[in-house]
Q: What sequence folds into this?
């Protein structure tokens, strides 16, 4: 037990984490490149054309993993923020700050590709669907977090203020999601539904999972590189 | 403890009363914004009746946010806030009292004047109580959540714009429930569900927001 906890705190120090992060980032970047190539190959060449949506559906190989990551990263960010506030560890705050741009990027990609998918499939760039709306609000939450940290000159205050905002945000995300969903059902009928046909070709699912894994690897790599930059900046 | 809270509420109300124009400005903003919509969209009564709940609620959100910047700024500038932080009363209670005072100054006038705006929008009379009740339940949540943002952005450059960026996304559920309850009533359905959800939001916000405000104040002043 003690050996385990000592090890954790050993890596919680920016000095010892810096070289480890470099190694992990390099491997994750390589894995991301390989998985991305494999996933895109399956997505574009192996997966069959969708019976209803034609070729346009292939954007989901980027869209769905990006949407997953956008939500997941916010939770991870809030987790590190909470750890940082609770244990006062510098590295946790740096992790939270480093995750935010990647999360915002994936949120933006999810919205953007969703819009590309919506144009040929639904005939419109944007609908006020529950998921689209809550994704948009998630983007605002990410931007608010980054704007708050950017506006505060004192680094310690910036980290802690951002952490508190991330925690308040993560408590609100489910409330926002359900309220938007309810608002949506109140305002318009289910004219447009994102829930697709239940059965999905196995290759499609494989491609999507591989792309999700690639995005995971990419997120880890980019975040760790950003953490290394923050460590260099701060120490 | 409650004595401290009462003192802060009374003091904030007194300060607001001495600077009545500040309170009036936020209220005037609410009236002007709601008056602009018919000018921009057109004055067909059917359309106005349809958009009235949403317009009134959005204007209430903006007006409430406008006065948030002043919530801690003056106390921070003259050192009162540091004395409050040092006081023996729990900071959560003080934060809750500040939010309550803000609601009394910024929220209650909105509740009172909203029926007048609804009149301009030709909203049917039976909807007035629903509108007032939804604002009565919703505006305290706006004050509580907004106070977290106000505490976080204390003394920052461009704090006002930043505050809106932080707080407005968090206001979304209140807006949806608040405007939704009036729209439900307008459609001839019972608005109870939405109003109860608003009340639930209020309970959750009242329970947790004071601690977040207190933590934010500590972060911003250390």
A:
């Amino acid at each position: 037990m003690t050996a385990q906890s000592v090890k954790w705190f050993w890596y919680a120090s920016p000095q010892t984490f810096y070289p480890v992060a470099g190694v992990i980032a390099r491997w994750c970047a390589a894995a991301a490149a390989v998985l991305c190539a494999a996933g895109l190959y399956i997505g574009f060449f192996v997966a069959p054309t969708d019976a209803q949506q034609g070729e346009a559906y292939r954007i989901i190989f980027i869209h769905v993993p990006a949407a997953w990551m956008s939500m997941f990263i916010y939770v991870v960010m809030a987790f590190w923020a909470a750890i940082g506030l609770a244990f006062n560890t510098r590295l946790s705050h740096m992790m939270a700050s480093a995750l935010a741009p990647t999360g915002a990027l994936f949120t933006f990609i999810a919205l953007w590709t969703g819009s590309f998918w919506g144009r040929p499939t639904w005939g419109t760039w944007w609908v006020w669907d529950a998921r689209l709306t809550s994704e948009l609000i998630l983007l605002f939450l990410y931007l608010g977090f980054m704007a708050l940290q950017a506006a505060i000159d004192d680094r310690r205050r910036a980290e802690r203020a951002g952490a508190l905002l991330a925690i308040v945000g993560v408590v609100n995300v489910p409330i926002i999601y359900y309220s938007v969903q309810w608002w949506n059902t109140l305002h318009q009928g289910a004219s447009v539904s994102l829930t697709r046909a239940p059965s999905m070709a196995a290759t499609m699912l494989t491609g999507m999972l591989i792309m999700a894994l690639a995005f995971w690897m990419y997120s880890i790599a980019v975040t760790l590189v950003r953490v290394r930059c923050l460590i260099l900046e701060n120490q | 403890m409650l004595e401290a809270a009462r003192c802060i509420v009374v003091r904030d109300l007194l300060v607001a009363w001495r600077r009545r124009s500040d309170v009036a400005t936020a209220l005037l903003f609410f009236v002007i914004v709601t008056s602009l919509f018919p000018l921009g969209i057109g004055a067909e009564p059917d359309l106005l009746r349809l958009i009235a709940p949403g317009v009134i609620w959005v204007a209430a959100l903006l007006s409430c946010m406008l006065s948030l910047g002043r919530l801690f700024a003056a106390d921070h500038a003259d050192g009162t806030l540091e004395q409050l932080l040092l006081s023996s009363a729990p900071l959560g209670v003080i934060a809750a009292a500040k939010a309550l005072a803000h609601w009394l100054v910024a929220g209650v006038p909105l509740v009172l004047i909203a029926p007048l705006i609804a009149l301009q929008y030709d909203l049917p009379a039976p909807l007035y109580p629903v509108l007032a009740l939804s604002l009565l339940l919703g505006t305290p949540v706006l004050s509580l959540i907004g106070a977290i943002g106000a505490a976080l952005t204390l003394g920052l450059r461009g704090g006002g714009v930043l505050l809106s960026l932080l707080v407005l996304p968090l206001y979304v559920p209140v807006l949806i429930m608040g405007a939704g309850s009036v729209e439900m009533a307008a459609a001839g359905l019972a608005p109870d569900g939405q109003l109860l959800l608003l009340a639930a939001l209020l309970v959750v916000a009242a329970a947790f927001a004071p601690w977040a405000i207190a933590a934010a104040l500590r972060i911003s002043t250390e």
The CA atoms of residues 152 and 216 of chain B lie 5 Å apart. The longest helix of chain B spans residues 91-120. Chain B touches chain A at residues 145, 148, 152-153, 156-159, 162, 165-166, 168-170, 172-173, 176-177, 180, 183-184, 197, 201, 208, 212, 215-216, 219-220, 222 (CB under 8 Å). Chain B has a mean pLDDT of 91.
